[in-house]
Design goal:
By secondary structure, this protein is mainly α. The chain is built from three helices and no strands.
């Protein structure tokens, strides 16, 4: 494998994925929270029943868990894209020694 270290590597999937990270974060974290808000706005008039409080509590916990899961997944993909992009960068050497022959 004799590859020229100064030849730039063409971008791959990391460029395509990195373009979707922010919209994926906004949609994946915002939609569960909007659903949670919509459920709370549909509360029937009068004092809430015990069943209503329990069901909204479970739904709130699930929505928050989904939002945190999405945020961690987007962060993981962003970190992977960053690592791949940095590893494809042009080679830098600390000294002027010639490269070893492969």
């Amino acid at each position: 494998m004799n590859r020229d270290p100064f030849r730039p590597v063409l971008p791959g999937w990391e460029q395509r994925i990195s373009g979707w990270l922010i919209p994926g974060y906004v949609a994946g974290s915002g939609l569960p929270l909007l659903a949670m808000l919509a459920l709370h706005l549909r509360q029937p008039p009068g004092p809430p029943s015990v069943a209503w409080i329990k069901s909204t509590g479970v739904f709130d916990a699930m929505a928050m868990a989904l939002a945190v899961f999405d945020a961690s997944a987007v962060f993981t993909f962003a970190l992977g894209c960053l690592i791949v992009t940095l590893m494809k960068a042009r080679a830098r050497h600390a000294d002027p020694m010639p490269l070893p022959a492969d």
